[in-house]
Amino acid sequence: METVSERPRAAAADFLPGGPRILELGLMPLVTTAFPERTTFLDTRLRWADVRTRAPRSGSLPVRLLRLMRRVAGIGRTCLVQDYDIVVARCVGPVNSAGHSLPIHAALSLIGLAFRGLVLFAARGPRVRLAILDVTDHLTIHPRDRAFLRRCDLFFKRELAANRWNTLETVLPRGACAGHARQDPACLALRAKLRPFALGIEAAALSPPIPASARRYDLFYAGSAQGIGFREAVSSVLPRLAARGWRIHAPAHRLSPEAFAEAIAGSRFCLSPGGVGWDCYRHYEVAALGSVPIFDTRPLTGIEPFLHGREGFYLDPQEDLERALDLLLRTDDAGVDRMTAAAQALVERVYTFDALARYVIGETLALGPVVRPAPPSAQPSLVEAEGGHGQPSMR
Fold first, then answer.
1. Residue 5 within a domain
2. For site-directed labelling of 183, which of 51, 125, 313, 382 has its Cα 20 to 30 A away?
3. Residue 128, domain member (yes or no)
4. Which burial class, exposed, middle or buried, applies to 101 when counting CB atoms under 10 A from its CB (0-12, 13-18, 19+)?
5. Domain of residue 316, CATH code
6. Average pLDDT over residues 126-132
7. Across the strands, what pairs with 120?
8. Is 367 helix (H, G, I), strand (E, B) or coil?
């Protein structure tokens, strides 16, 4: 599997005194929490309710309108001044208006268009770098994000196909087929911008694991098939594994979050098949709570994937599922404890939100120094004039 873990990643303070200045736009902050002193977060949810507490804002209609106008003006002023070096924003993705009326579809489309315009305006000019995060479930990039791909410096794609040309299928230049794209400089430049990404998990979710010998279950699985072939196959196999004597916990009803976490922590192994997309919050949740994840086939490029037999297991779709699971469940307790520790270490190192944020900024800075115009009176040092900057590890 192709990874980017071998490439040196730049630290946030490598190229600018105190680190780069970052502007993050969107609905949910990622980089802001990792670099709060260097990041300005512009919440684009222009709502009547407080975006943190969801409580309705107090005041009359004119007062609320005035507040909204001030927020819009503040966003515009920040983007106009450009007192930052890197812009980080989520992609637009599908409209997600299925089942709604045409006016609602049009309104959502216009909101996406306005957001895209704001991001591109904020990142205008050659000095500011633009990093786009795509956390959608699709292997391909949505056509609404074609402008982002063309204008950005890096495009971080969850569900990035192992063959990256598959991810670019819907956004290649007009008239370009996959065969032609491999020899076209413009298409090669688009491919070079792609980086793998993941949903990740909060660091607070990691908890000390229970020793394998003290866990109540051998295998835990909770989920509905929803027309997904692997999940349908699992549903028929689990009763047969229970008949072999394995302690299988597969509740038919939905568990509370507390019961779900307790079931994971109390199981030696947890099945974690993909849903619409392969990358899933449950993968990292299972490892964080102290169990060993068992995945279905992985068709993706990853930042640093779980390795078969070290941090988890992958099931080959060509093998008999019942026989394969029976063999994996025979792993001794010492082996389960080793894998649990390795999986937790991987999640903490690569897949916490803080680690993902540092990865995004590190990969962006690895493209080269961000050049901020110096004041007329400032005289660059010899090192600055020659561009002598190191690129040590992020951690």
1. no
2. 125
3. yes
4. exposed
5. 3.40.50.2000
6. 95
7. none
8. coil
- Whole-prediction pTM: 0.85
- Tally of CA atoms within 13 A in the half-sphere of 250 that contains its CB: 20
Confidence of residue 66 (pLDDT cuts 50, 70, 90): confident
* Residue 53 domain boundaries: 22-200+353-386
299 in helix, strand or coil?
Answer: coil
- 212 in the same domain as 306: yes
Q: Given a cut of 80, is residue 68 above it in pLDDT?
A: no
- Domain match, 107 and 163 both: yes
Please list, in sequence order, all residues whose beta carbon lies within 8 angstroms of the beta carbon of residue 62, skipping any fewer than 6 positions away. none
In the chain, the largest separation of any two C-alpha atoms, in whole Å, equals: 80
Strand 22-26 relative to strand 267-271: parallel, antiparallel, unpaired? unpaired
Contact yes or no for 292/270 (Cβ under 8 A): yes
Q: Are residues 47 and 188 part of one domain?
A: yes
Which tokens in the block code for residue 277? 């997309």
The residues near 88 (Cβ < 8 Å, ≥ 6 apart) are 22, 23, 24, 25, 30, 31, 131, 133, 360, 361
Asked whether residue 300 is assigned to any structural domain, the reply reads: yes
Number of domains the chain is built from:
2
